[in-house]
Amino acid sequence: MVEIKNVDIIYNKGMYNEKKALDNFSLKIEKNEFITIIGHNGAGKTTLFKVLTGSLTPDSGKYIINGREIKKVRSHILFKKIGIVYQNPDSGVFPELTIEENLILGKKRGMRGLGFSKYDSLDLLTGLGIGLEKRLKTKVKELSGGQKQSLAMIIAVSSKPSMLLLDEHTAALDPKMADKIMNLTLKINKELNIPVLMITHNMNLTEKYSQRIIEISGGKISSDIFAEENSSSGKIFCGKNMFITEVV
Amino acid sequence: MNLLGIAEQGLILGFVALGVFMSFRVIDLADLTPDGSYVLGGAVTVSLLYRGIPWYYAIICAFIITGISGFFTAVLYNKFKMNSLLASILIMTMLYSVNLRIMDGPNISVPKDISEETVLYSESTSLDNFLGDLNISAEQPDKKENRKTEYVSPFNNLSDGKDFLLLLIILLFSITVLSVFLKTDFGILLRGYGGNKEGVTSLGVNKNILSITGLFIGNGFAGISGGIFSLYAGFSDVNMGQGIVVTSLAAIIIGEILISRFNILYNLLCPVVGAVVYEILLSFAMKYGYKIGFQPGDIKLLTSFFIVIVIGFRTLEVKKWLKLKM
Ligand SMILES: Nc1ncnc2c1ncn2[C@@H]1O[C@H](COP(=O)(O)OP(=O)(O)OP(=O)(O)O)[C@@H](O)[C@H]1O
Ligand SMILES: [Mg+2]
């Protein structure tokens, strides 16, 4: 379980271009949750991820992982517990290495192998059904964007992190590949029991895959709704304790 | 033309080319420190020889000390957030002064063999005798004998193949060690860092360690090269490193043209093969170039021009510009 409490992030503090990107922001991520984060450009979504990965240290507030408060946030240590995939497929893979070597690095996260042994990343690769498992000796720079992104997902989760962050990870992909990646995302969430936070601007994906949707605007949560399976009408989105929005 | 001697010089250049390969290719950081650390390697090696330290220990010390100069470049790059070029130029410039200090002057020659020092001892002995009955002469004889059996430099400069063999053995040993290292998990990480510097952070690895390691090894090999060159040539000079990075890049590029298609040993053989071919080409240019008005001083111009051309031809835009279809 990961939680942040009353976090403020202010860019360029005290300067003419001071900008409060997160305003007294609190969020609790339960075990195995799949949260979709939406919001207009500049709302503060990526900034939230930077806090969660320790790339930014909050000006105030708390950060708790598995019940323990993290006092000194050190990015390269937090990254051992958190997997992240960005929009750009090149940022999550190592182009000069082979597919096999990329998988090795994923497993050896932080060089300490963090006890990951339950799941074979090769199985995940095979499960994707795009034939990468047969090309283990291929250098990753020779792959397509979608193939790289699939590999980036597997690298990000193969050390069984406490949480997987996805920052518009399907934005650069065609719809078919995006679907494949989303299926992998769900599989990671359901079968590996890793909580997922996904930022997206794609409303189709949001409606199709979400359990909980958080909307951020101006550095604050402006709505937080849950999806419930309804036998008669499919998926229903409900606000906290009350029935609100649309039926899909 | 003495082909063996040229090949020997090529192998010596191979060490620094290997180091430059480590920084420019493996971890993909432009590092000019070798222009200084190459000399540092020579300076350290020769001055250690004067302290009676065997050449192989001196070379190992040169590796470590020049590696540390690479460490400082990495610190400027990591902690002071400098561009790696600026960081390395600063360290290289500092090394110029450091090298003058170490050599206590602009150059220093290798103590040729022990006979010079033997003379020194006998002189002091006769002085002692002259001064009277200081009873230390008993120690002198076996000191003499001990030192007489060791040659200061392992090279005989006879081009009889022995120097070549020794260089080849050290070089192949280094390549073997490096390729085994690059195969380990840490080595994979180092190569991964070359292609995606931020990506390793997402893996929970402190990326500073990777640039430090890469630049340490890169400059360490420049140091070995400078040290061996000094042993081979019989001197170390404060200007001998000038342009060594550019020369190494030319060697790497030649090697890549020739053998990178085979993709063996992480292309570690490219800088070495390239260096030997470079020296051969160079000696041809020196021998026959005068006919077309070529002067020795033009070498740096030609070498740099060669790099520009090759890099240019690899670039799509230049190809288009020249309307070539390759
Ligand atoms: N490094 C920075 N320096 C100064 N201001 C920044 C910086 N990064 C982000 N901001 C500002 O903080 C606010 C939130 O940015 P953030 O990147 O979190 O938005 P986002 O929700 O991810 O937007 P998008 O959907 O466009 O990716 C924006 O107003 C942005 O201008
Ligand atoms: Mg963003």
Quaternary:
heterodimer
SS elements, strand count of chain B? 2
Uncertain segments of chain A: 113-118, 241-248
> What is the gyration radius of chain B calculated from CA atoms?
22 Å
Backbone structural class of chain A: alpha/beta
The percent range for helix content of chain A is 25-40%
Question: How do the strands of the widest beta sheet of chain A line up side by side?
Answer: 6-7-8-3-9-10-11-12
CA distance, first residue to last residue of chain B: 36 Å
Order of helices and strands of chain B: HHHHEHHHHHHEHHHH
Sheet bearing the most strands of chain A, described? Answer: 8 strands, mixed
Stated plainly, the CATH topology of the largest domain in chain B is called ABC transporter involved in vitamin B12 uptake, BtuC
Classified by CATH, the class of the largest domain in chain B is Mainly Alpha
Q: What class would the helix/strand composition of chain B place it in? A: mainly alpha
Ligands, ions, cofactors: adenosine-5'-triphosphate, magnesium ion
Query: Strand content of the residues of chain A, in percent?
Result: 25-35%
Using only C-alpha atoms, the radius of gyration of chain A works out to 18 Å
Number of domains of chain B: 2
Poorly predicted ranges of chain B: 115-149
What strand line-up does the widest sheet of chain B have?
A: 1-2
Estimate the strand proportion of chain B.
under 5%
Descriptive terms for the model:
heterodimer; A: 248 residues; alpha/beta; eight-stranded mixed beta sheet; four-stranded antiparallel beta sheet; 7 helices; 27% helix; globular; disordered C terminus; B: 326 residues; mainly alpha; ABC transporter involved in vitamin B12 uptake, BtuC; 2 domains; two-stranded antiparallel ribbon; 14 helices; 2 strands; binds adenosine-5'-triphosphate; binds magnesium ion
